[in-house]
Design brief:
Elements (H helix, E strand, L loop, with lengths): L1 H17 L3 H29 L1 H21 L3 H29 L5 H5 L1 H20 L7 H7 L2 H10 L7 H6 L3 H11 L3 H23 L4 H6 L3 H19 L2 H6 L1 H7 L5 H25 L5 H25 L4 H20 L1 H11 L6 H53 L8 H7 L5 H18 L4
Length: about 450
């Protein structure tokens, strides 16, 4: 995801070098998210056929091709072709990475481990911001090409990592490769007894999946005509994916230079330096989320995240509307943007992917996660491709007021539709959704257990 951070600064120099229009700028920025839904849609089926590990390899290869084409693009058309390749690769990666990690992780640390893709997304964005600042002094014909070429570096490291990481044990069981699955589980679980228990649970879940196949009950038919339990899973998984994007995070990241210009900043170097601060804040707080997600739980972090984002977005809207064109306005805008991305990274940013990868049953997991990814990518693309147009119509401050209202709605969604999944196996989480209100009872029991633990003196 270096590309996300890079494009926010590179677009300044692409406009200068290739003389593209504002509409072309919106399309270039937003098309990545729209096209990535093709990768997300194809990723579910692809990962079921060739495995989770080699789907990650395919995603990395596609992105490398796209980044290379963009870096060498002589015109807008070639730039768009590279953007298309990169978008499909990102779609594959966003869909498969959390699924793979959720399936290979032990229950006690699944939340923090599944958040690791978000760390690398944020590190990529920060690296993109830093490269923008470092190369901004070069000529406009060269600097944006180097900025976009930097995106190849992380995917090369992924290629080396594939030489050592194992395949998903759940996928191996579905392929009847039981001994290989047992070997993988022995590396991620502490005792032989635990390995056998986890293997038995997976085999049971895979047996249900294979029975469905024998009865010719297609996965997509079950997703299109879901049972009440699956419907609740889809509402939670797809809903959190959409709220992650329609609260405006991609607009904040992609168009942070535009935001800072609207707040009164004029020097491109100073603007790009401010974006580095945004990237640093976003990356730092994802580390905080990793430390807390399996201790504090998913839902408390989501409350902190969505409430904090709402406050920051209202603050940014007020600043841009009434305090712009001065040092105070610029300083408050930088503070509000940094606060918004920080609250995003401590909750809904990583937890969105954690929930989407752990709430669906094995037979549906890959393709249901892909469906949620489509909602995320479409939402992101619509926001990115319409931001400049909407901002021209109702001002940048007015646009962020709308994002703030949507963020307030996300607090209500978290309260009503998201269960606590901390510490539960994937198979136990599936049972939460089978009976309406089951997770509320589970949360009450968890609170009562925590109260008892506090009252009982420790030896």
């Amino acid at each position: 995801m270096v590309d996300v951070g890079v494009m926010s600064g590179a677009i300044i120099f692409i406009k200068e070098d290739l003389k593209i229009s504002e509409v072309q700028e919106e399309v270039l920025v937003g098309i990545l998210s729209i096209i990535s839904l093709l990768g997300s849609l194809a990723g579910g089926k692809t990962s079921d056929v060739i495995g989770r590990k080699w789907t990650i390899a395919f995603a990395s290869l596609l992105f490398q091709c796209g980044a290379g084409i963009m870096a060498l693009a002589p015109n807008f058309t070639a730039l768009m072709i590279g953007r298309l390749f990169a978008g499909v690769g990102i779609g594959f990666g966003l869909m498969i990475a959390p699924v793979y990690i959720a399936e290979i992780s032990p229950s006690a640390s699944r939340g923090s481990l599944t958040s690791f893709p978000e760390i690398f997304i944020n590190l990529g964005i920060l690296l993109g911001y830093v490269s923008n600042y470092v190369f901004s002094g070069l000529s406009a014909h060269i600097n944006w090409r180097i900025m976009l070429g930097v995106g190849i570096i992380p995917s090369v490291f992924i290629g080396f990592a594939l030489c050592v990481i194992p395949e998903s044990p759940r996928w191996l069981v579905m392929q009847n490769r039981i001994e290989e699955a047992r070997l993988v589980l022995s590396k991620t679980n502490e005792s032989e007894r635990e390995v056998e228990e986890r293997l038995a649970e997976i085999e049971l879940a895979a047996g249900v999946a294979n029975t469905d196949k024998d009865e010719a009950k297609a996965v997509w038919r079950e997703l299109l005509y879901p049972s009440p339990g699956v419907r609740r899973m889809l509402i939670t998984g797809c809903g959190i994916q959409c709220f992650q994007q329609i609260t405006g995070i991609d607009a904040t990241v992609y168009y942070s230079p535009t935001i800072f210009k609207d707040a009164g900043m004029t020097d491109n170097t100073h603007i790009l330096a401010a974006t580095v601060a945004v990237g640093f804040a976003k990356t730092t707080f994802i580390l905080v989320a990793i430390l807390l997600i399996d201790k504090l739980g998913r839902k408390p972090l989501l409350y902190i995240s969505t409430i904090g984002m709402t406050i920051c977005l209202f603050g940014l809207s007020f600043t841009l509307s009434f305090l712009g064109d001065g040092k105070l306005g610029a300083g408050l805008a930088i503070l509000a943007v940094c606060g918004n991305v920080s609250f995003f990274s401590i909750g809904i940013g990583p937890i969105c992917w954690v929930l989407s990868s752990e709430i669906f049953p094995l037979r549906l997991r890959a393709q249901a996660s892909a469906l949620g990814g489509v909602g995320s990518r479409v939402s992101s693309g619509l926001v990115s491709m319409s931001f400049l147009t909407v901002s021209r119509a109702i001002t940048v401050g007015g646009t962020f007021f709308i994002f703030a209202m949507i963020s307030a709605l996300s607090v209500v969604f978290v309260h009503t539709c998201v269960p606590e999944t901390k510490g539960k196996s994937l198979e136990q989480i599936e049972l939460l959704f089978q009976n309406e209100g089951e997770w509320q009872r589970a949360e009450v029991a968890e609170v009562e257990l925590a109260d008892v633990e506090r009252l009982v003196p420790k030896e």
